[in-house]
Amino acid sequence: ANVRYLILPRNGSNLYRLYGTLLGMNVNKAAQYNIQDWLDSTSPDFKPEISEAIFYYREHATKEERLQVCISTKEMDEAAWKYAHHSQFMLDGTFGISSSKLLLFIALATDEDRKGVPLALFLFSVPSDNRATHAGYDTKIIVEMLESWKLHLTRSKEKDFQPFVAVTDTDTKERGALCQVWPDILLLLCKVHVQHCWTNRKK
Q: Which pLDDT tens digits describe the chain residue by residue (203 residues)?
């Protein structure tokens, strides 16, 4: 009870590697090779629980390609049908979530208690020649991942997955992608992002 730990900046990577090792991850390999092993049923490192949760995957095989991993568990699929079909969901992106220049987009809905419920995770790398992570995506790749999500959900119930409303920030690439995947969808702007936009413009 009388022990304190002093965590120095250089300890972060050591803790990360230790935790990865405890999870059965080979931290000496690039992320894409670990993922490939987890999804390959012939690999000794095959992980069926991960394979079942990934509904779309593209490996980073060449310099021109990018890693794409779209994730949704069975519980997330059920939540998508329950809370977002013929209803509303939110889409937002987070940039630079790791040292590997990965981008993460999250589809989210709210339940009966107004609590956030994740519906799908869209993880992808930036092009090899991009310096800025936030500039590593366009409407096309978001369309590709949203289409794969829509197809995945449609196959699970054998009927079209159709949200009526989507809430986003002011990113036109996200909004354009949503309109391409669901032409009749109504798009709303997040109030917090609008407020930030007005504040920044006034400054």
A: 789 988 888 888 888 888 888 887 888 887 778 888 888 899 888 989 999 999 999 886 666 678 899 999 999 999 999 999 999 999 998 876 666 678 899 999 999 999 999 999 999 887 665 555 455 688 999 999 999 999 999 998 889 999 999 999 988 999 999 999 999 999 999 888 888 888 888 98
Q: Between the CA atoms of 90, 94, 98 and 102, what dihedral angle is there, to the nearest 10 degrees?
A: 80
- Reading the block at residue 76, the tokens are 């997330």
**pTM (two decimals):** 0.81
105 and 122 Cβ atoms separated by less than 8 Å: yes
